[in-house]
Amino acid sequence: MTIGSLRDLMGETCRAASVPHDKSAFVVEHYLAGELRGRGAHGVAKFCFEAQFFPQREGSPQIVRENGALAVIDAHREIGPLSAAYAVEVAVGKAADFGAGIVGMINTQRYGILAQWSEQIAEHGYLGIVMNTSRAEATIHGGRSPVLGVNPLSFAIPTLNEPLVADMSTTLAPMGILWEARRTDRPLPHGCFVDDCGHPTDDPDAATSAVVFGEHRGFALSLLVQFLTGSLFAFPMGAEVDSAWSTGYSFLALDPSFGGQVAGFPEQNTQLIAEMRSAVTRDGAPLRVHGQVSRERADRALATGTVELDDAVYRRLQARAAGDFASD
């Protein structure tokens, strides 16, 4: 379908969900970016799911605790892209003043892709890191009990060109894949989810946990994200994360000039990326750099003005635009 018609339907959904008129376009463009980059689980499908919560916003995000480079934000159940944009603004401001901005946020609705926020930090010349936890929905390799959140992580590095951006969950597949499979009665990707006995399953109704990638090393990384989005800011962790409102988010902006490097940060990064691009795989193909495929996919979609959208998601979006926020 055309990007323009998709944008219009998403705008109608925002109006039906009482999103402030001057904020609707920003919300739409955030989720649309996820779709154009090929991140369907974080694009229109997630927009359709999250739209039911848009009317629950209670106010604008505000800082409730801060000390130097650190700040804690109560988002007052703001719509996810709007609260994230505020957290980025605070982190960038702290980095300008103190050389680092370390911001925790809680009590917010969810957003789509993380890459947009780390990328915005990098566009200010800072190293940007964004992450969040979730309910305990993930287990380690060989496990059966969900003990960690999916714990996605994104970082962005300034260069002389576009920032280098990585965006990933610390599980083999995000929970959005499971939710969408349940709605459409489609099988799950092999090996990414387990049932309550710990056995791999492709049945979305039998799956109880996502599996953390990388065996024990992935477990360690996911655990680090858990602490950086939890106890660092006195936010809930593990079983205490029981809803969107108790989910912790972190936004880090790091200024290399405060580490003694007056200049050369983007230049060094650009040089390293050039070296990586000159490397080849064993098949002789160029090494794929993080974010490259998703950016190319978005560029192609924008050039043609069209994007492929799953029929079930399209029907759900039509229902949302008509004011139906319950049907799947």
Q: What structural class results from the helix and strand content?
A: alpha+beta
Distance linking N and C termini: 20 Å
Which range best describes the helical content: under 10%, 10-25%, 25-40%, 40-55%, 55-70% or over 70%? 25-40%
Total strand segments: 10
Topology pattern, helix = H, strand = E: HHHEEHEHEEEEHEEHEHHH
- Assembly state: single chain
Unreliable stretches, pLDDT < 50, 5 or more residues? none
Q: How many DSSP helices?
A: 10
Estimate what percentage of residues fall within beta strands. Answer: 5-15%
Question: How do the strands of the widest beta sheet line up side by side?
Answer: 1-2-3-10-4-6-7
Mean pLDDT: 94
Q: What about the largest sheet?
A: 7 strands, mixed
Tell me the overall shape.
globular
Radius of gyration: 20 Å
